[in-house]
Every structure is written in structure tokens, then in C-alpha cells.
Amino acid sequence: MLFFLLVGLFVVDADLAMQKKTEVKMLLELANHHATFAVDPVLKTEGVIDLLEDEAMDRFEERMNQNGGYHRELQTFVPANNSVTTDPLVFSRYYIDFRAWRQDLDIYLRYNGKSLSQDRLVPGASRPEGGRLHITVVTEEGEELRLAPKTMVGPSHVVVAFVDESPFLPLLPGHSFPVVSVEELKH
After folding, report:
1. Tell me, what's the pLDDT at 5?
2. Strand (E) positions, the chain?
3. Phi/psi of residue 103, each to 5°?
4. CA nearest to 52, candidates 63, 66, 41
5. Sequence-distant (≥ 6) Cβ neighbours of residue 86 within 8 angstroms
6. Of 7, 32, 42, 15, which Cα lies nearest the Cα of 156?
7. Which end of the chain is more exposed for a tag (fewer CB within 10 A), N or C?
8. What is the superkingdom listed in this entry's lineage (predicted)?
């Protein structure tokens, strides 16, 4: 009976982790969509779509607070009591402008337990239909977590968050996973 209870706890814990991953992905997508409306109006009149990055991050933060109860402290989103995660979300962002969106790009990030930082950017081949974006996160243990590739269709704002959650019960392992949002700037 104890064995079945333990198996049940593992299943519940894994289900909670998947729900959190889905919720965090949705929060990032909504916040990033809102951020991509921060387009430079002067350049837009000249036919150039370019992001006002400070305004974009303010808009991103606003949506993370409205939809998830998170507030930003540097490169971390700190959860409120009713947020989907109990531990802070660390994040990294990258803007791919109108001159570079047709070029492939590999983004390597490093998670050290407290922050998520850009390790290196490796440009690749150009594609007329839009470059492919590959994101790899290297954990503290040296494990490489590769996210599914994305194809850019225009200038894009990329936000990668890393969830490093405490387990449901102390005897279970914690959950760590990256989540990415890639949004084209809105015309």
C-alpha cells in the first residue's frame, strides 16, 4: 500500500510540474505579445519596424504582474502568493532586429542556480523565409537542455525563463525546465 501511495505522489508531482510548465509558457507568451507593441513610431513611419527595448520590458513586466502576480527584480520575476510558481523565475531576453531576422541564430544560455545569462550567440546561414532560432540552456550540472527550434518571420523579441521549483514533497526531486517565447514585432 505504501508503494502505491509513493507512486501516486510521483504521478501527482509530475502532473503539477507539467501544469506549471504550461502555465509559465502561457504567461510568457501573453507578456511577450504585449511587449512587442513597443515599436519605435518614428522609424515605423519610414517603414522600419524596430523595438523600443526599455518600453518593451516595461510592457512585459506589466503583463507578468497582471496575469501571474509576478514583479521584476533585475533579471528575476518574483512570484506572489497566488502565482503559479513558488520560486522566482529567472529570465534572459534577446532582440532580433530587422537586419538579422533572416539569419539562423544559436543562443546558448547558462543557468547557475540564481541567474540565466547569455553564454554565446552563434549566427548561421541566411534564409529568405526567416532564420531558425535554436536555444540551448546549460544547467549547473552541465546538462544541455535544447528547446524546439523556432522559425522567425520578422524582427522578434525572445524571452527565455528558467523554472527551478522545489518539489511537492521534500522527499521528491525538484523540477527544472526552460520555457521560451518568440514573438514577432507587431506592425
Report:
1. 58
2. 71-73, 76-78, 89-96, 103-111, 116-126, 132-138, 144-146, 150-151, 156-165, 175-184
3. -100, 135
4. 41
5. 79, 165, 166
6. 32
7. N
8. Bacteria
On whether the CB atoms of residues 119 and 138 are closer than 8 A, the answer is yes
Largest CA distance in the chain: 70
User: Cell triple for residue 22?
Assistant: 504550461
3-state secondary structure of 40: coil
Separation of alpha carbons 148 and 65, rounded Å: 27
pLDDT tens digits, one per residue of 77-93: 999 998 988 889 999 99
* Position 81, amino acid: N
Pairwise CA distance, residues 173 & 175, whole Å: 7
Nearest partner of 49 among 117, 88, 94, 97, judged by Cα: 97
Q: Which three cell numbers stand for residue 115?
A: 541567474
